[in-house]
Write a structure and sequence with these properties.
Length: about 350
């Protein structure tokens, strides 16, 4: 049998603890090193046999993955939310526990793509951060007016041609100066956001699947770029249900007392598990992308008729939109895997046969 050694790495900014166990779970080596390329790789190279390694997803995960992956037979970046434990806890205990969980195949892996997709992902994060910052500033501006009993619905308060009129409604020089600075900050963020969009779309066009994604109803240039950046590859997901769970469209069900004894025979109860809403652990960016795509497709395009029909049949509008978002996500996954373009006639035919 191959001599496999399992290395658990508890990573921190200054130092990291590395624990090595063999296939029987015996601790055979343990060390504390500074968190640097040289010391970590030197320790890994000093181990004989086949090396498997693991560490938890975190700030340094991308860097560690790139430097360790070429030097081990298997590397798992695991989800720290699935590794919670009771009892005593310190760095050495954590490293040993990671090594033993790796040995017992008890870790939930977090996907890490190849280095070439990282540029697009960083540009996508830049765009998202600027969007979030802009929203925070806009909320602060409106909070100033609402706190003084001034109604400010819509986006009129942000427009340059309306600003003087809105500033005059504030009751003091201090509040007007504060509002001016917030609006100046919003203008600067708007300029940066425009640059971020150009960089993001320009980079995404280098990928051959960009045009394929753009052809799906509701998916524009920015949404296509974000899908490429955060999904990376559709082959991560075996089926649409896994994809739904990743983007937050999976229905969570809770059941209990599933079996009963009837006439001395064990049978499954007819009581169905109760739905408890959508899953809470998901990629927030992708959920917003597909929700936005559904809203766009609901008011124009080939899916508008489908949505209207569901609403006429008694489906609540919010549930009809969720169904449409899940459908767009399913179509995206299937076409991306096959490398095929969207064809509305083929889609209508499949709807009729199901």
């Amino acid at each position: 049998m191959t001599d496999i050694k399992y290395i658990g790495i508890d990573v921190h900014q200054a130092t990291s603890v590395l624990a090595v166990v063999n296939r029987r779970g015996k601790l055979i080596s343990e060390t504390i090193v500074d968190t640097s390329f040289t010391t970590i790789i030197d320790f890994i190279k000093s181990q004989r046999g086949t090396i498997w390694a693991t560490f938890e997803e975190g700030t340094q995960a991308n860097w560690l993955y790139d430097i360790i992956e070429p030097h081990v037979a298997k590397l798992i970046v695991c989800d720290p939310r699935k590794n919670k434990q009771d009892g005593s806890k310190d760095d050495k205990i954590d490293a040993r526990r990671l090594a033993n969980l790796l040995r017992m195949n008890g870790l939930t892996a977090v996907y890490h793509g190849k280095g070439e997709i990282r540029i697009l992902k960083e540009l996508a994060r830049s765009y998202i951060n600027l969007q979030q910052d802009s929203n925070r500033v806009m909320n602060r501006v409106k909070a100033m007016y609402r706190g003084r009993g001034i109604s400010c619905r819509g986006k009129s308060v942000y427009r340059p041609e309306n600003r003087q009129k809105w500033l005059e409604k504030l009751d003091s020089h201090g509040s007007r100066e504060r509002a001016k600075r917030l609006l100046q900050q919003l203008d600067l963020l708007s300029e940066l956001n425009s640059e971020a969009v150009k960089d993001l779309v320009r980079e995404s066009r280098k990928y051959k699947d960009y045009k394929l994604l753009r052809g799906i109803p509701g998916i524009g240039p920015i949404r296509a770029a974000l899908i490429l950046a955060f999904v990376m590859t559709p082959h991560r997901f075996r089926n649409k249900r896994q994809f739904w769970a990743y983007i937050g469209f999976s229905v969570v069900r809770r059941g209990s007392a599933e079996y009963e004894i009837v006439g001395g025979v064990l049978k499954r109860s007819k009581k169905k598990p109760l739905p408890r809403g959508l899953n809470h652990n998901y990629n927030h960016v992708l959920k917003n992308v597909f929700k936005g795509a559904a809203l766009t497709a609901a008011y124009r395009g080939p899916f508008k008729e489908l949505l209207d029909q569901r609403v006429e049949n008694g489906t609540a509008p919010n549930l009809a939109l969720l169904t449409l978002a899940r459908k767009i996500a399913s179509i995206t996954l299937a076409l991306w895997k096959k490398g095929e373009s969207f064809d509305i006639e083929r889609h209508r035919l499949s709807e009729q046969t199901t």
